[in-house]
Amino acid sequence: MAGLKLITFSDVAGSRVGVLLDGGRVLDLAVAMPPARDMIALIEAGPAALAAVRALTANPPANAVLAADKVALQAPIPRPRRNVFCVGRNYMDHVAEGDRTRGITNSEVPKFPQFFTKAADTVIAPGALVPSHTGVTSWLDYEVELVAVIGTAGRDIPKEKALDHVFGWTIGNDVTGRELQRRHGQWFKGKSLDRSCPMGPVIVPREDLDTSDIAISLKLNGEQRQSSRTSKMIFDVKEIIHQLSAGFTLLPGDVIMTGTPEGVGYAMQPPQTMKTGDVMELTIEGIGVLTNAIGD
Ligand code: MN
Q: Three-state secondary structure along the chain?
């Protein structure tokens, strides 16, 4: 069974939530289920609301169905309420390739997740342009990541309860200015350039997709650059939520990027950067494809 595909979309009537249906159609939840005014409201409305969305999806009312090519997809959560939470160095082959750029050949497995954030307003829609940031960075790079969307608040969440706090899954691209990431010590500067966090195209509810061992990959201009499986994470989603929530309350609608596998441009021989016109195509099995290009 294919998972439910929840979207945020916009047209002349504004931005709202919906479901991507088959046959190039969109179910407009603002018409079919007016309380679901945005994705965070839908998440906060809980399991009963999600069950209602499933019932509507199985039998969509005609007055609430739109043609998908008449609307524009937004990021599923267009503006998170807080910074995007991220984990660095969470796939061993990516740790090793990063270490090699600094002459380190005997990489150690990280003992704890390396948390950092991107500003909430770095999030952009599928298809939106990522600025080249020419003059600010010479080493713009891509990173495909599985994103966990938090559904229910929690602090000190035990590992065995962690997935209960996940609403669903989407795809994120942790676009990075590599030399900024490195030279400022803390990663925030290199990770939080304007419009550097494409996200989407859909949220698949947690119960519709087991993300413990699924394919994750990225192509740049059609060339395969990253290809791995989520089972290769050093700290899995349960461990990430357990450790991030220690003494820190996670909230509904928080988004957590879970790290990227090997194959980033900066670690290639010779190192590669991105330029205006480059197209990044990110695929995660069971979620979809997130495509964004580099603008001026
Ligand atoms: Mn990353």
A: CCCCCEEEEEECCEEEEEEEECCCEEEEHHHHCCCCCCHHHHHHCHHHHHHHHHHHHHCCCHHHEEEHHHCEEECCCCCCCCCEEEEECCEHHHHHHHHHCCCCCCCCCCCCCEEEEECHHHEECCCCCECCCCCCCCCEECCEEEEEEECCCECCCCHHHHHHHEEEEEEEECCEEHHHHHHCCCCHHHHCCCCCEEEEEEEEEHHHCCCCCCEEEEEECCEEEEEEEHHHECCCHHHHHHHHCCCCCECCCCEEECCCCCCCHHHCCCCCCCCCCCEEEEEECCCEEEEEEECC
